Structures are given as C-alpha cells and as structure tokens.
Amino acid sequence: MAAQATESDQIKQFKEFLGTYNKVTENCFMDCVRDFTTREVKPEESSCSESCLQKYLKMTQRISMRFQEYHIQQNEALAAKAGLMPGTSL
Fold first, then answer.
1. pTM surpassing 0.90?
2. Are 53 and 64 in contact (CB under 8 A)?
C-alpha cells in the first residue's frame, strides 16, 4: 500500500513538473521567438530564451528559500509558544 502511495506521489510530481515545464517553455517561446521565416534559431532568440529560463530558475529558487524561511519562523514561533525553545519561558 505504501509503495502505491509513493508511486502515485511520484506520478503526481512528474505531472506537476511537466505542467510547469510546458508553461515555462510556452512563455519563453512567446516572448523570444519572433521570426518564423527560417528554420534556424537566431542568436538573439537563443539568448533571449536562455535568459528567460535563467530568470525563471532564479525566481523559483528565491521563492523556495523564502518559503523555507517562513516555515522556520513559524516552527520557532510555535515552539516558543509551547515553551520548547531554550531561553524562553511562559
């Protein structure tokens, strides 16, 4: 049963990843690709798409860090409220 839950979670995570990947790809494509008269990717299109992806990755990393900081603060506040933190008393 636990193996099924893990497999189900992995499938869910993979679907979420694919959804995010598709959104980023579409957004960067729409922002960067302008010329459909040639099969070649122009240097400015390539550079734009790389910058777009880098910006997304940095933004995702920053949000993740802030999310972790927030949860640490929340856990510390709960522990202090319960009197579990050293140096705190009620």
1. no
2. no
